[in-house]
Design brief:
Layout lengths: L1 H31 L4 H13 L1 H12 L3 H26 L2 E2 L7 H19 L4 H23 L9 H12 L11 H32 L3 H13 L1 H12 L3 H26 L11 H18 L2 E2 L1 H20 L2
Antiparallel strand pairs: 1-2
Helix pairs in contact: 1-2, 1-8, 1-9, 2-6, 2-7, 3-4, 3-8, 3-11, 4-9, 4-10, 4-11, 4-12, 4-13, 5-11, 5-12, 6-11, 7-10, 7-11, 8-9, 10-11
Length: 326
């Protein structure tokens, strides 16, 4: 038990460190290559900040533990929508007043509905993974075109907000010096640490489930999902504390979209197979319900403290239910 917990904790720490190094290195390489700041924010930062979830889910699926892989994806979205959004809104109540406030939550709701459909039908193959990734590429292309034409006072889309949230958190994101050596080193070391961390986390999670007599699904939904979602928690809370409530809200919604389309698509592509049936109806149903709740909160023009408490209470009740029925 102690060894398994140690592997899980070590894996999570390495994932966080590796993810940060990789993003810094990738941003540095992109800046050296003359890539525009908009592409860096929309693509490189967005993909890089999803790497802990991506590496963990792919490692788990390829290790023959799809319950951990998809539990991580589903659990991360539930944690984003209930735990992280609720915490950030408690720090600073969110006022969402723009006319297009439904746009990105609507995309997240659509992706959640696709996840439910795939799980309910048991459909999963390489083509499904390709389609999910293609949907993400199309969405990012749409966001890129929108941002290029954006007026200075426009409220930005969720992928842009993910980049801004990281900018507020990592003050050394653009400190790379004059040469290529530092960003190349950051990138290579980050990839190696991420891979090692994901492997340790998956091995530890599988052992922990076996030793503690818990299901791999439960471990994926809780320990793994919360652990890989820690960067979003930090960036969203810091953004809220600095008064950037739109950025905090967009960071949560953007993370949900990337989890479903990027992490889910890559997992399905590299380790095709049906989404575990024991994630239905509660867990994937809650992903859809929480996505709908976020859309409704956007229509209601904000997340005040009472809805924030409700989100946190719902997450606590969900965890309690999982533990009591383990």
């Amino acid at each position: 038990m102690i060894l398994a917990l140690g592997l899980v904790i070590a894996g999570l720490v390495l994932l966080l460190i590796g993810g940060e190094l990789l993003v810094r290195g990738a941003v540095g390489l992109a800046e050296k290559a003359g890539v525009s700041a908009l592409v860096i924010g929309l693509v490189i930062v967005g993909f890089g900040t999803s790497m802990p979830e991506l590496v963990t889910s792919v490692e788990a699926a390829m290790a023959g533990a799809p319950a951990i892989a998809w539990g991580n994806i589903v659990g991360s979205n539930i944690a984003n929508s209930l735990l992280i959004l609720g915490t950030a809104a408690l720090v600073a109540p969110m006022a969402i007043t723009t006319a297009n406030r439904w746009r990105d939550p609507g995309v997240a709701l659509g992706a959640s509905a696709v996840l439910l459909l795939l799980a309910a039908t048991g459909h999963g193959n390489i083509l499904t993974g390709v389609v999910l990734l293609a949907c993400l590429i199309g969405y990012i292309a749409w966001c890129y075109c929108e941002e290029r034409l954006a007026a200075p006072d426009m409220v930005h889309n969720a992928p842009y907000d993910r980049g801004q949230a990281l900018e507020l958190t990592d003050t050394k994101l653009h400190e790379h010096g004059d040469g290529w050596a530092k960003p190349v080193m950051y990138t290579l070391v980050g990839l190696a640490v991420l891979t090692g961390g994901g492997r340790l986390l998956v091995i530890g999670a599988i052992d922990l489930a076996r030793v503690a007599g818990l299901t791999e699904t439960l471990i994926g939904l809780t320990i793994v999902a919360i652990g890989t979602s820690l960067p979003e928690l930090v960036t969203s809370v810091i953004a809220a504390r600095k008064g950037e409530v739109d950025v905090a809200f967009g960071n949560v919604v953007g993370s949900n979209i990337y989890n479903l389309l990027l992490v889910g698509g890559a997992t399905m592509l590299l380790a095709p197979g049906a989404i575990p049936a024991d994630l239905l109806p509660l867990n994937i149903g809650l992903v859809l319900a929480s996505a709908l709740a976020i859309l409704l909160l956007a229509f209601l023009r904000g997340v005040k403290r009472l809805p924030a408490f409700s989100l946190l209470a719902a997450y606590a009740a969900y965890l309690l239910f999982l533990i009591l029925n383990a």
